[in-house]
């Protein structure tokens, strides 16, 4: 089958081909901007470049109106002025490839841990059969890892975001690097350092903090000391890693004993220390350089941000209708934040405590955060697309079901884009229709999340 042959190509070939495609799109973007009234380059890229110009002139990047990012972005974009205007886009494309490599490594590592936990089948009693089984597992691991890499590299959304000049590939890199250090290298202090950097760079990774903390709990399900001999053993809550047989009990996360999981162990302390050290060091340095405006534009603004223009968010029409109301009751903010907060906490405990579902916990939390956010644009979908390939091998869904969900997701976006087009380019009042499609898009995202949870299987008895 052509698709299988394509996926099974050496991953270096995929990296090379995808780099050529990205560079071609960057070149096309330069041409498109010169001949078209609708630019290919993202408006944020111009904001980055202008902020870099201020830095080059020994000024604050926040003197550029609407610059609400880490000063690190402006520093990285200085070569846009000194070398070439497309430097930043090329940098984002290269980081895209690094992201893909990290995805492949993480998938291979988690698969090896999975096979180590499952153990050898009972019928493998000869050396030859064990060797065949090991070879089969290695082939399966390479194919699955390559598939995850391909899903990221050739995704139209990731291609467009990086080549248009959006910096989210860097934010994604920090998240993936944290997962890599946690799962592949077991370097928890370094993981904390990178996690603190990722929170500074882009605020959204802060929602993963509890999940990472729970992952290192000694009460974690399927702890590394827990091994399968003849079959998958029962999940245990014992801190010493021993397995005890017990009767099935009602599945719930609301248990008093779960409070014990918050008591830190040495690994968790190292993670927290690294995170606090890097995050507060960066905040202190840039506060010294740029003052309160840095704190407000980089962090505080995003907690109070409102976008009365059209976007995918379920809440945009509410913000549009209440834009001129000064005194809005606290109940509105509570109703907006509470559902998201509850789901994030539930997923942190439900999946963070399972050594084989850390990646899925991050995926589920990202979908919740993006779907329930008060402002939602296309670039946020990259956060989901970066983590989804890590979990594909654990989502036991048929190809037909997967295709159906993809079609539903794109159809919901297309239905939203139609009234948005008439508003943006023809000036017609289609706000109500946009909101109706935003509700439909919200429902589509929640339905997809429900299906992913339904078909997610962290551990199966047969490989």
Automatic annotation (TrEMBL):
Q: In which pathway does it act?
A: Glycolipid biosynthesis; glycosylphosphatidylinositol-anchor biosynthesis
Which InterPro entries does the UniProt record give?
A: PIG-M (IPR007704)
What residues form the membrane-spanning segments? 12-31, 165-183, 203-224, 271-290, 330-349, 402-422, 434-457
Per the UniProt record, which EC number(s) apply here? 2.4.1.-
Q: What is its main location?
A: endoplasmic reticulum
Q: Which UniProt keywords apply?
A: Endoplasmic reticulum, Glycosyltransferase, GPI-anchor biosynthesis, Membrane, Transferase, Transmembrane, Transmembrane helix
Alphabetized Pfam families for the sequence: Mannosyl_trans (PF05007)
GO cellular component terms listed in the entry, alphabetical order: endoplasmic reticulum membrane; glycosylphosphatidylinositol-mannosyltransferase I complex
Q: Which GO terms describe its biological process?
A: GPI anchor biosynthetic process
> How does the entry describe its membrane topology?
Multi-pass membrane protein
What GO terms are given for molecular function?
A: alpha-1,4-mannosyltransferase activity; GPI mannosyltransferase activity; mannosyltransferase activity
UniProt keyword annotation of Kinase present: no
Location of this chain's protein in the cell: Endoplasmic reticulum membrane
Top-level taxonomic group: Eukaryota
Q: What does this protein do?
A: Catalytic subunit of the glycosylphosphatidylinositol-mannosyltransferase I complex which catalyzes the transfer of the first mannose, via an alpha-1,4 bond from a dolichol-phosphate-mannose (Dol-P-Man) to the glucosaminyl acyl phosphatidylinositol (GlcN-(acyl)PI) intermediate to generate alpha-D-Man-(1->4)-alpha-D-GlcN-(1->6)-(1-radyl,2-acyl-sn-glycero-3-phospho)-2-acyl-inositol and participates in the sixth step of the glycosylphosphatidylinositol-anchor biosynthesis.
Stated family? Belongs to the PIGM family.
Q: What is this protein called?
A: GPI alpha-1,4-mannosyltransferase I, catalytic subunit
